[in-house]
């Protein structure tokens, strides 16, 4: 990594996209061996601290901030509501943020060490981007996905490894997660589906995150 002075810290950069969009990066104390790109980065990037106390490889979290307007957030995160807005955010997230990450932090981004993560509507984003860019993301981490974006009858020929989780007290989101797990398994994908005690937005998302990282990037 280019700058060891930022090891163990958070770095925020504001991009020109959509009038100014922040991206917050958690930089692990040791040189990163894996990178997780996430929506709602103002919240999820902070979960990097929980990784420090677990036995997982040093993992960088690159979090594009999500909008507070829920309608516009859904339009950016799910391809089914506003195709043009989704495509613009997709380009920003997959191309601009990724290129900046490699340049700013001097990290390699091999597919097998890169994941995309999201919760709720962000879970739809993770699924959509993972399926559309399997050459970029080798793993999908998805917690309690929303129901706008659904599996298609014909799935892509190449599907990243996928880890889904949802809570027993959020039946709508649990059903969505289980629907995705079944569809991806039917398509031959490597899938983990966890049903946890918890409600939507609950702490079980944060607790599950290190387990996702360990599953995808744990040392042999």
UniProtKB/TrEMBL annotation:
It comes from the Bacteria. Coiled coil: none annotated. InterPro entries: AB_hydrolase_fold, Esterase-like, Mycobacterial_A85_antigen. Gene3D superfamilies: alpha/beta hydrolase. It holds the Pfam family Esterase. SUPFAM superfamilies: alpha/beta-Hydrolases. This is Esterase. It comes from Dictyobacter halimunensis.
């Amino acid at each position: 990594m280019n700058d060891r002075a930022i090891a163990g810290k958070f770095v925020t950069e504001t991009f020109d996209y959509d009038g100014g969009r922040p991206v917050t990066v958690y930089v692990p104390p040791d040189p990163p061996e894996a990178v997780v790109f996430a929506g709602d980065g103002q919240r999820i990037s902070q979960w990097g601290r929980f990784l420090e106390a677990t036995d997982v490889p040093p993992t960088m979290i690159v979090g594009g901030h999500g909008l507070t307007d829920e309608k516009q957030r859904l339009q950016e995160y799910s391809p089914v509501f506003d195709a043009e807005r989704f495509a613009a955010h997709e380009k920003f997230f997959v191309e601009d943020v990724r290129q900046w990450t490699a340049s700013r932090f001097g990290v390699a981004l091999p597919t097998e060490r890169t994941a995309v993560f999201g919760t709720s509507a962000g879970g739809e984003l993770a699924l959509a981007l993972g399926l559309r860019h399997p050459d970029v993301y080798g793993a999908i981490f998805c917690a309690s996905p929303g129901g706008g974006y659904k599996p298609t009858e014909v799935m892509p020929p190449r599907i990243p490894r996928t880890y889904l989780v949802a809570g027993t007290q959020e039946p709508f989101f649990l059903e969505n997660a289980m629907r995705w797990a079944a569809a991806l398994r039917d398509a031959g994908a490597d899938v983990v589906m966890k049903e946890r005690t918890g409600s939507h937005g609950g702490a079980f998302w944060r607790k599950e995150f290190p387990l996702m990282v360990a599953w995808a990037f744990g040392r042999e």
